[in-house]
Design the sequence.
């Protein structure tokens, strides 16, 4: 049985038996990769009792229509979809590996990214650091820690300077897209050096649990947040990000040139209670 990812606005389907995605012509798929637990075993709080061959998440890269190919190339953008499978590793929710983005050419800020939830419920862990690329990654300083809950049809701009990972906190697979500036470096070292992000997200009989990662020193207070819309930046809930970009490419100028958009991007996060 196939389920269409209607919130993508594209002819993309998930096979409910294999849990793999299929892209219908004339849309193109640039690449695919899976992430079994054995490739990220040190990023979970406790994976000692888990099956190392268990699939944690899959990534489908560089999805675009043939007729949109030149537009993506012109702006140097890439559209991907990630499927985080349901389930736990130990007591922790399945998640992506987590990473930082490299510096924009001015050197003032790192590149942002747009995440859009296509199915399920996401929790995006965001941790700010201005020295994430330090030679000794164990010495990074975390200045801010935000956990953004997003539902199907909502989009989040990952702010510049924030490392990020995505957690499946709902029932079934959590599927999300990303729109990113293709030349942006992706840096994993700081997260790997700390055996994961600054917050582990788990579950028990009462619901979600949150545990700070003691591998980091002097962590700030963590806050929950929810996303907000901004049509000027192409973020309007219920409107697929892919279509928003095709209809108004200039609205996403912030992806390659974030310096002038910092306040607008941060205003899209409604900061809530402290964890």
Sequence:
């Amino acid at each position: 049985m196939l389920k269409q990812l209607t919130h993508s606005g594209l002819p993309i389907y998930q096979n409910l038996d294999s849990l793999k995605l299929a892209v219908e012509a004339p849309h193109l798929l640039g690449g695919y990769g899976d992430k079994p637990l054995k490739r990220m075993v040190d990023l979970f709080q406790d994976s000692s009792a888990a099956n190392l061959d268990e699939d944690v998440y899959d990534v489908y890269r560089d999805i675009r229509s043939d007729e949109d190919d030149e537009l993506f190339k012109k702006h140097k953008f890439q559209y991907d979809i990630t499927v985080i499978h349901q389930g736990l590793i130990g007591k922790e929710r399945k998640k992506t590996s987590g990473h930082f983005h490299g510096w924009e050419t001015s050197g003032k800020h790192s590149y942002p990214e747009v995440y859009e939830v296509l199915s399920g419920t996401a929790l995006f862990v965001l941790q700010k650091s201005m020295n994430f690329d330090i030679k000794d990654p164990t010495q990074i300083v975390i200045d801010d820690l935000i956990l953004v809950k997003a539902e199907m049809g909502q989009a989040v701009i990952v702010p510049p300077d924030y490392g990020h990972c995505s957690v499946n906190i709902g029932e079934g697979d959590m599927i999300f897209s990303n729109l990113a500036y293709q030349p942006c470096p992706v840096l994993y070292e700081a997260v790997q050096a700390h055996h994961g992000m600054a917050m582990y997200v788990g579950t028990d009989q009462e619901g979600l649990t949150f545990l700070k990662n003691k591998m980091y020193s002097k962590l700030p207070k963590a806050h929950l947040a929810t996303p907000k819309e901004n049509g000027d930046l192409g973020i309007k809930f219920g409107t697929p990000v892919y279509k928003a970009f095709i209809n108004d490419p200039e609205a996403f100028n912030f992806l390659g040139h974030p310096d002038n958009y910092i306040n607008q991007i941060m205003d899209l996060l409604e900061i809530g209670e402290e964890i």
Notes: Residues 2-274 form a domain with the Jelly Rolls fold (CATH 2.60.120.10). The mean pLDDT is 97. DSSP finds four helices and 20 strands in the chain.
